[in-house]
Amino acid sequence: MTTGITRKSSRPAHCMLVIALTLAGCVSPGSRVRTAPPLPTWPPEAPDCPSPHVVFGEPVFVGHDPEHNVTLSYGAFTVYYDDRVLGPRWVAMKLTAAVADANSNFDRPSRFKTDPALDEMGFDFTTHGDYANTSDEPRKWDRGHMVQFDDIRGHGDDAGRDSMFTTNVCPQLAALNQRGWLSLEQRMTEYARDFGTVWLIIGPVYDGPPRPFAPDRRVPTADAFFRIAVRSGAAGEPLAIAFIMPQAPVPRDSNLDAFGVSIDEIESRTGLDFLHELPDEIENVLEAEVSTPWPDLP
C-alpha cells in the first residue's frame, strides 16, 4: 500500500465547499431588484498546507466508470486515473508562494514508479518501461509530469516522490515538454508568487479514440494538454485562466497567450465538468470567457 494515500471513486466530502449566500440592495414592497451573484467561500489561508488540492468541486468526468476510474489523493496533489488511457484524466494541486520558493534539496529520482494501489484495487497500470522510446526515434518522447516536479517538491520529499508515480505521467513530445510546456509551467509558478495562492488543474485532451504514442507501445498519446489556474480576486471573486497546448513542438519562447482558451472549450474537448460547486451565475460567466493574461506583478 502507498503510504499517506486515500482512494475513492466519488467526490470526497472534505472537498465540498459551503457557498455563502449574501443579500444585496434594498427591496421595497412590490419592487423587483436584481441582486449581485453571491461570492463563494474560499478555504482558510494556509500557505504551507497542501489541502484542499481542488476548489469548487473535483472535476467530474462524463465517462466515469468505477471499473476503470479511481481518484487517488496523495499528500500534496490529487489524480483522477483512467486505466482505459493508462493515465490521468486530470491532476490538481494547490500552489502557494511559500511552496514555490521552498527550494527543496530533494533530487529528482531517475525512474518513475508504479503506484502499487492500482494493482491492489484491480486497475490496469504502467511501468517506467512502458514509456520508452523506440530505437529509430530514441529522443522523441518524454515521460511528461502533469503536476510539475519542481513545484510539488516544495511540499517536501514525500510529495516529490509521489510525483514520480506513473499515475502522474503522460507521453509528451520532448519538443513540447522541454520547451513550450515548460514555459507554461513556469508561468503558473510565477502566478503563485504574484498572487499568493493558485489552484492548478492539468490533464490530457483526447480528440478521438486514444492511440499508442509509438509502434509496439501500449500507452495512448494525447492530442493536446490543458492547464487551468484558479485564484481569488481582490474582492474574493473567483478568477480563472485556461490554456490548451497541442501535442506538437512548441518553442520555448512562444507567445503563451496565444494558447489561452475558455474553460468551456476544455470541458467540451475532455468531457470534464470544472468548478461545478460555484453558483451557476458565476460559473457560467467564468467558464465562457476566453482567457486573457493576468498582470505580471513586480
Write the layout of secondary structure elements.
Blueprint: E1 6-8, E2 60-61, E3 69-73, E4 78-82, E5 87-96, H1 97-100, H2 116-121, E6 141-145, H3 149-152, H4 157-162, E7 169-173, H5 174-195, E8 197-205, E9 211-212, E10 220-221, E11 224-232, E12 238-246, E13 260-261, H6 263-270, E14 272-273, H7 280-288
Antiparallel strand pairs: 1-3, 2-14, 3-4, 4-5, 5-8, 6-7, 8-11, 9-10, 11-12, 12-13
Q: What's the structural domain tally?
A: 1
Task: Please state the CA-atom Rg, rounded to the nearest Å.
Answer: 20 Å
Number of extended strands: 14
Number of helices: 7
Q: At the first level of CATH, what is the class? A: Alpha Beta
Shape: globular
What percentage of the residues does DSSP assign to strands (E)?
A: 15-25%
Low-confidence region ranges: 1-28
* First-residue to last-residue Cα separation: 45 Å
At CATH level 2, the architecture is: 3-Layer(aba) Sandwich
Kindly report the CATH topology: Extracellular Endonuclease, Chain A
* String of helices and strands: EEEEEHHEHHEHEEEEEEHEH
How would you name the CATH homologous superfamily? Answer: Extracellular Endonuclease, subunit A
